[in-house]
Amino acid sequence: MTDKPMNWDEYYMTIAMAVRKKANCLGRKVGAVIVRENRIISTGYNGTPEGMTNCSDGGCVRCRDRDTYKASVGYDVCICVHAEQNALIAAARFGNAVEDAVVYSTLRPCFDCTKAMLQARVTSIRYLHNWQHPIGELREQYELLQNSLRGGVHPVELFDPDADWANAKVNPAPDP
What we know:
Number of strands: 5
Strand content: 15-25%
Helix content: 25-40%
Structural class: alpha/beta
Order of helices and strands: HEEHHEHEHEH
Number of helices: 6
């Protein structure tokens, strides 16, 4: 039996899944890869800014107090940088243009990340797991924002063996 070769979306999303393993957030674990002209120019995962105590070590009040800050609420007090933001920032730090790039993210990007990608002139977003804004009245605005990307926002169909861990549905097993 021969395996079917990966297409490019599967290839880049598999790399984003590997990148998310560095995420130190107590909530979702997200990885992002920015691709321009079929070359990876940047990667990012979610976690605290460089030099700060990791979220997993108690550095973020939002993640530390999960009962007060429900999922998708309280981003204004969260010190974690999203995977897509980290990838955009890393590209800027190292002088890599992101205009006309495609962003692969293991989670459909939030409002703020989508705005940053629009402003950076990213062409399109490919995501693995869907995210919906928890406030129903804002979903239309969110869809309008994402529909502004020239190349659109598209799911990538790919099996994710770590989906529950990445989406904070189970705690990972401790390392041996």
